[in-house]
Amino acid sequence: MGFQVSIQPSQQHFQADATESILEAALRQGLSLPYGCRDGVCGSCRGKVLSGHVEHGKAQPDVLSEAERAAGFALFCCARARSDLCIESRELRSLADIPVRTLPARVQKLTRAAPDVMLVELKLPANERLQFLAGQYVDILLPQGKRRAFSLANAPQDDAFLQLHIRHTPGGKFTAHVFNTMKERDILRLCGPHGSFFLRSESAKPILLVAAGTGFAPIKAMVQQAISEGNKRSMYVYWGGRARADLYLLQLGESWPTEHAQLNFVPVLSEPLADDNWQGRSGLVHQVAMADHPDLSGFQAYVCGSPAMVAAARRDFVTRGRLPVEEFFADSFDFAADTLAAIETLTASHIRASQNE
Ligand SMILES: Cc1cc2nc3c(=O)[nH]c(=O)nc-3n(C[C@H](O)[C@H](O)[C@H](O)COP(=O)(O)OP(=O)(O)OC[C@H]3O[C@@H](n4cnc5c(N)ncnc54)[C@H](O)[C@@H]3O)c2cc1C
User: Fold this and answer.
1) pTM (2 decimals)?
2) d(CA 169, ligand 1 centre) in Å
3) Ligand 1 pocket check for 142: Cβ under 6 Å
4) Closest residue (by CA) to atom 21 of ligand 1?
5) 37, 122, 263, 287 — which has fewest CB within 10 A?
6) Which of 288, 227, 277, 285 is nearest to 257 (CA)?
7) pLDDT of 196-250, one tens digit each?
8) Domain at 98-194, CATH homologous superfamily
9) Residue 337's pLDDT band (cuts 50, 70, 90)
10) What are the residue ranges of helices labelled H in 55-149?
11) Is 207-332 in CATH node 3.40.50.80?
12) Cβ 174 under 6 angstroms from ligand 1
């Protein structure tokens, strides 16, 4: 049974089933109410029921007392609608409203999806959830203040586990650890969410999403978020790799258009192997996207992957495709700052050494 919920002061509306929490229903429909644990413990989702009835579920009495319930307060992560409702809750309007947190996370599951791609599922401590926007990333914190950035591959409403798609960087310390020594149940520390790579929901323009390799991770999160919100904007997803094995979740991408008419999915290989028997599109992924959409003046573009691909896409989409530059959004998978600093130091000492020769 569905109930109509209106939020004050924003005057937004959404539908809530009797079986889901008010928070779940709001997130499912793309409304960002604040939350923390999603378990009735932390109180971050506390708000007021101005009219109508809720069942409080497992809200803990020390977080929501009887007196507070009587005064109309509720924890929206636990409360379920029992009638149409008018609620008072702050809505997160900008990235600045989302708290950046440092948390331990247990490695729940490791899945080798390709020879050089590991799917990592992380579990936060009981009573902890990370609020984020689909497309954002977290930093994995390493000893000596080092950190490595990885995009969250799951949509926020599906946050029982955090998913990362980690490519083994040749010579890379952390990714070598992931592939060679990390085990299920190991504990990592992460900090996030970070970044401004997320779908701009205020626009109605069709969306071009271009991913290379593990750049698919945040694109997947965005698409899954759009699906769960019932977003009907046309989305054209292009996912590129060198060979077939690089498209490590190909079946998932191929399932999107069969289930959702507004979604298109085009896999692209730049160097298919003979054994791949590749019948699909070939070439550089952003060029294939442009061949299909030569006029991007009415689009928004979201691009993710290697710095070279992102730079080429930005240049070509804007100059040749006439994409307004403010409609280009990207996350470029740069190496970590400490690695770059080390390379710059090495390069500088190499230059000094060669000048002294
Ligand atoms: C916002 C963001 C999100 C990201 N998300 C993901 C993701 O979801 N999945 C993913 O797989 N990766 C992602 N990355 C990239 C990932 O953070 C890096 O690949 C990371 O540095 C790898 O860590 P590492 O310790 O294994 O390698 P590092 O120790 O950082 O570097 C490995 C080696 O690469 C070489 N190297 C480093 N920098 C350069 C350079 N500039 N030019 C040439 N060679 C270089 C060096 O040989 C170095 O030893 C993301 C990056 C950013 C900025």
Assistant:
1) 0.84
2) 6
3) no
4) 335
5) 287
6) 227
7) 889 988 899 999 999 999 999 999 999 999 998 888 999 999 999 999 999 999 9
8) Translation factors (2.40.30.10)
9) low
10) 66-70
11) yes
12) yes
